[in-house]
């Protein structure tokens, strides 16, 4: 049986043929991945692509990093899951995280970012005895009910509840207030009106689930001030920004310290481990402490091989010039893309930070709000990315998605990307972009 038929077999036993909603990408229904290596992946047709999707962000060191993989193999050879007690490596990882991330006094491990943000909201509600949480239009914090709304909303759904799933209790949807990112006035008004009921504000300090929207000066400080004044919990969801932008996360860059922080993705270069950490008084209310009331569990929490992956990854991030390398390449890509778009006469706003980049098909300065992003020409954005695939470059062809460089990318990859971009842009202009953007341009619209 040919590997191509795998995608057909997949359809009969896996809903939609893939194991995550965001892996069902229009135009890529036949895509079967057979190998990853460094800055590349290979598909079942034998085609190798330079990968800038990076599995939504984990492999900051590049795929199959030899040091991380060796640490996993070494751990797996002598210890696996026990489900009782603790290991020395878990303690050392927790000590590392507490030393690196300004807000983290104590820390608990989970397997995924969604679990970490779930627990962050639960402990916030428990600690404050309040009901409401605040999130921002364009932020994604995982798949659980309290935050499953208003990510990449269609224009007509901005400003009201826009669930990304059915099956959520209406009272849960009603307990989340969705505010515009970078709008300090809206935050102050929400606190003036609902402050006594707000348990937590959860925010991606840089909005990376819509590409790259940086916080404007003072915005994160307003979140800090308002939550402090109202006695609410401030949660920085650093599942993307953590370790990728700095070992101490965005909070170490912006100087605003939240009460709780969630991290994942780049912590272990692709192995499933994440964490929630923060103020000791909040963290000590989790039921891992005897008699404490906020239930916390997970069969795979602190899995030795995953902990080993995280420790090896953090060691490498600390000891090698990883950030220097990816930041330099990121800068070359962003300035190179600006040139490519301007030569072609195509309006573009090239945004990003460090290793992250995204070329929005719209004019004007870097976007600051979700409303700005509605000007992005999704048909061209998708058309360009699909054309890039013909040149063996992979940037995920879903609207607004960011791209990443890793330690395994080189200056030669950047040259190749810029050359391919020139050609892909011409092809996208000729074709007018993707005609059918349904299912690739928004994420939301689930009817209540
Ligand atoms: C900012 C942010 N928070 C949380 C999550 C959820 O993490 P996971 O997919 O590991 O559950 C994601 C995933 O993309 C994310 O981008």
- Helicity range of the residues? 25-40%
Report the total helices: 14
Largest sheet: 7 strands, mixed
Low-confidence stretches: none
Order of helices and strands: HEEEHHEHEHEHEHEHEEHHHEEHHEEH
Distance between the termini: 43 Å
Share of residues in strands: 5-15%
Rg calculated over all Cα atoms: 21 Å
Bound compounds, each kind once, are: pyridoxal-5'-phosphate
Q: In total, how many domains does the architecture comprise?
A: 2
CATH superfamily of the largest domain: Type I PLP-dependent aspartate aminotransferase-like (Major domain)
Protein structure class: alpha/beta
The CATH topology of the largest domain: Aspartate Aminotransferase, domain 2
- List how many beta strands DSSP finds: 14
Give the averaged pLDDT, no decimals.
97
Description of the molecule:
The chain has 448 residues and is of the alpha/beta class. The protein has two domains: 50-64 and 321-431, Alpha-Beta Complex (Aspartate Aminotransferase, domain 1), CATH 3.90.1150; 66-319, Type I PLP-dependent aspartate aminotransferase-like (Major domain) (Aspartate Aminotransferase, domain 2, 3-Layer(aba) Sandwich). The chain is built from 14 helices and 14 strands. The chain has helices spanning 5-13, 66-78, 88-100, 113-128, 170-174, 184-194, 219-230, 250-254, 280-283, 304-319, 322-344, 370-373, 378-390, 411-431; strands spanning 33-37, 40-43, 48-51, 106-110, 132-136, 176-179, 198-203, 233-237, 260-263, 274-278, 349-353, 356-360, 393-394, 403-404. The strands form three sheets. Strands 4-10-9-8-7-5-6 form a seven-stranded mixed sheet, with helices on both faces. A four-stranded mixed sheet has the order 1-2-3-13. Strand 8 (233-237), helix 8 (250-254) and strand 9 form a beta-alpha-beta unit. The mean pLDDT is 97. Bound molecules: pyridoxal-5'-phosphate. Pyridoxal-5'-phosphate is lined by residues 56, 112-114, 117, 140-142, 204, 209, 237, 239-240, 264, 274.
